[in-house]
Backbone:
């Protein structure tokens, strides 16, 4: 049965989410817990069992990339025909369809791709002098207001209440907002928020439109529900029309877009407002090692505020890996050089450049790392440029490959045909050009070749629910068709370079190795975060960064922004890691670097990262089972009491209770094993080491005391 294939491989929580009955379902999905898998399999399961028709489902997400991935997975699961779109794409489709009815035969207004230019004109009309940057900031402020259902006349009050920091006086922003709306109407254009409002208006004010839309879409799925803004929620409510077949998935701990108007309140309040809702918590993290998961848990464990009510304690499912590393450098330049060198070493040891990311708080930090990577001859890609298939060089390449079909013999291997076609555009496989922009274009073309190589290596496909494999055509014609399909779905390949990205733009992505750079107070959290809510969002931003790493994680900061500058404190959200001096003076070869690395301790039972001092001393999580030798513990207690009495000091001066538990659990038999217990150094090794080894070996406290007396 095809549903068996859909349910195969799901963990118990995922299976509960997939098979939940019709009605409100809230999936609280932590980072790396398989949320997309859960919701796509839920959709497929419901369609394959005949519970719902694919054409009656609308799945909504926030990026075209996520929507494309959802459509691709649903097709593989045998659930083609489901509409998976962004809020804006779904609204645009509906407004265009109903425009003749809603606009009484008038043409639908042109859609503004960007507000900045018209906002600049509106600012001039309102007597506000705004340069290009100022116009962008004003556009963002207007976008926040419209997404929050705030009218121009309400802006000043709403902005103060929301503790906004607008680029101009609130009253002036309101004037620009008013002028912008007037200018749009005069020119007959609308923006993206207008389009969402038009979709809402069409449903709320036109019963015939509402009836037709609600007859079409009867079952709804919303991804990243913590990022919904009031306008999007208003549209979702209009679509639902009081019905309750709604599945939402989100993670309150990944709420990082509040500045745009997004609010996690709809996710937080979902179970309260829908008492009959099924709530499923996905906490098994399949992405990251237990060490990375432990650090992520430690970062978010201290969170406060409403989002913390839905905080999830992740449980790592992967085998143990390397401990996260914390590095401290004299300045940002030294930090960037060290990161570039480590990237180069990782690539040399076999880690693909595309599986490495350097993440930072603001885009303004990018230049330092770009320079360091360029000097280290490490390829890199700055995330945030055009989508892959929208790049001019890729468009040119696809035209060249389509033209090459006519002149390429049918027996030509696919990769050879692609390389030859690209050569006609001037691209040379073995000669990447110098210069950042030229190199980036070369890497983009190389990604097409890599796609061809992958396509040629997988000549057959076996869709779920079908018996036998289907032979795939690996000709240049078929590959061109595959590229066109990917372009339509915005499914871009990974360019072979280290990714440089802000923490915000890294959301939803993951890499084998991640560098979290610039973790200094004033940068993360930013100096602009002043209220408790703003600071908590900065904490969640760090959490998002940590959870991007699959295997290897490096956290670092420069003590000064520039050589000789004022010293800064480390990010306040970092757990109290054991930071020995990890300073590396990258430019001073004459100094021998300090080899002691500031690492996070791991649980010797489950491998999770340990943060609390007592946990590090025990070498295990407080929830992991204890292997305490109770008889040894009693002998240690008696010996400690006698030793403290002889020295006329409190018992804890000899060893604390936690240390005695650690000794009775870990039973050290060598100096190295004893020193591995947190809090025991060379002095206590010399004072009490011989006695501890004797007690661990089975000696009684009296025997140890007698031996000490004889010595």
Residues:
């Amino acid at each position: 049965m095809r549903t068996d294939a859909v349910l195969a491989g799901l963990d118990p929580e995922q299976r509960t989410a997939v098979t939940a009955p019709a009605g409100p379902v809230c999936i609280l999905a932590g980072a790396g817990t398989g949320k997309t898998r859960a919701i796509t399999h839920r959709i497929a399961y419901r369609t394959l069992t005949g519970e719902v028709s694919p054409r009656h489902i609308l799945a909504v997400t926030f990026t075209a990339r996520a929507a494309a991935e959802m459509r691709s997975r649903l097709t593989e699961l045998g659930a083609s025909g489901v509409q998976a779109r962004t809020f804006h794409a779904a609204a645009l489709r509906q407004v265009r369809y109903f425009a003749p009815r809603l606009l009484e035969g008038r043409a639908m207004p042109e859609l503004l791709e960007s507000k900045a230019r018209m906002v600049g004109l509106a600012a001039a009309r309102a007597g506000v002098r705004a340069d290009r940057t100022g116009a962008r900031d004003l556009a963002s402020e207007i976008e926040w207001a419209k997404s929050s259902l705030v009218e121009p006349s309400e802006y000043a009050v709403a902005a103060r209440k929301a503790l906004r920091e607008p680029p101009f006086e609130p009253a002036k922003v309101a004037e620009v907002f008013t002028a912008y709306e007037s200018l749009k109407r005069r020119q007959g254009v609308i923006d993206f928020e207008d389009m969402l409002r038009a979709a809402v208006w069409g449903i709320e004010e036109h019963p015939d439109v509402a009836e037709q839309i609600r007859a079409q879409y009867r079952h709804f799925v919303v991804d990243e529900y913590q990022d919904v803004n009031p306008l999007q929620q208003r549209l979702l409510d209009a679509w639902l029309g009081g019905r309750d077949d709604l599945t939402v998935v989100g993670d309150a701990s990944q709420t990082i877009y509040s500045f745009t108007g997004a609010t996690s309140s709809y996710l937080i309040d979902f179970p309260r407002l829908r008492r009959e809702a099924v709530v499923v918590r996905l906490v098994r993290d399949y992405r990251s090692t237990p060490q990375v998961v432990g650090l992520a848990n430690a970062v978010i464990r201290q969170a406060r505020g409403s989002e913390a009510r839905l905080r999830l304690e992740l449980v790592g499912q992967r085998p143990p890996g390397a401990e996260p590393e914390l590095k401290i450098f004299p300045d940002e330049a030294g930090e960037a050089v060290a990161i570039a060198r480590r990237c180069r070493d990782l690539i040399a040891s076999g880690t693909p450049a595309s599986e490495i990311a350097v993440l930072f708080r603001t885009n303004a930090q990018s230049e330092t790392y770009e320079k360091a990577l360029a000097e280290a001859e490490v390829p890199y890609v700055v995330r945030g440029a055009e989508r892959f298939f929208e790049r001019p060089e890729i468009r040119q390449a696809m035209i060249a490959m389509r033209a090459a079909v006519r002149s390429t013999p049918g027996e030509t291997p696919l990769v050879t045909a692609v390389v030859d076609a690209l050569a006609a555009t001037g691209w040379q496989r073995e000669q990447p050009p110098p210069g950042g922009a030229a190199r980036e274009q070369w890497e983009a073309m190389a990604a097409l070749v890599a796609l061809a190589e992958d396509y040629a290596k997988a000549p057959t496909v076996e869709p779920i629910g079908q018996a036998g494999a289907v032979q795939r055509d690996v000709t240049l014609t078929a590959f061109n068709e595959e590229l066109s399909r990917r372009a339509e779905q915005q499914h871009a390949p990974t360019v072979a370079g280290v990714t440089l990205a802000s923490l915000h733009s890294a959301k939803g992505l993951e890499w084998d190795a991640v560098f979290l750079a610039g973790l200094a107070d004033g940068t993360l959290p930013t100096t602009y975060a002043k209220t408790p809510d703003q600071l908590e969002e900065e904490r969640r931003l760090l959490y998002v960064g940590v959870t991007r790493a699959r295997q290897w994680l490096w956290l670092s900061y420069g003590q000064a922004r520039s050589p000789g500058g004022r010293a800064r404190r480390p990010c306040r959200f970092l757990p109290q890691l054991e930071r020995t001096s990890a300073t590396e003076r990258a430019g001073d070869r004459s100094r021998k670097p300090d080899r002691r690395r500031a690492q996070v301790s791991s649980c010797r039972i489950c491998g999770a990262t340990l943060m609390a001092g007592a946990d590090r001393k025990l070498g295990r999580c407080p929830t992991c089972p204890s292997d305490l030798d109770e008889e040894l513990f009693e002998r240690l207690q008696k010996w400690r009491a006698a030793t403290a009495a002889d020295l006329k000091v409190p018992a804890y001066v000899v060893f604390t209770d936690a240390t005695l538990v650690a000794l009775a659990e870990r039973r050290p038999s060598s100096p190295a094993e004893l020193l591995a217990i947190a809090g025991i150094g060379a002095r206590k090794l010399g004072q009490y080491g011989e006695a501890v080894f004797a007690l661990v070996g089975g000696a009684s406290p009296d025997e140890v005391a007698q031996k000490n007396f004889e010595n």
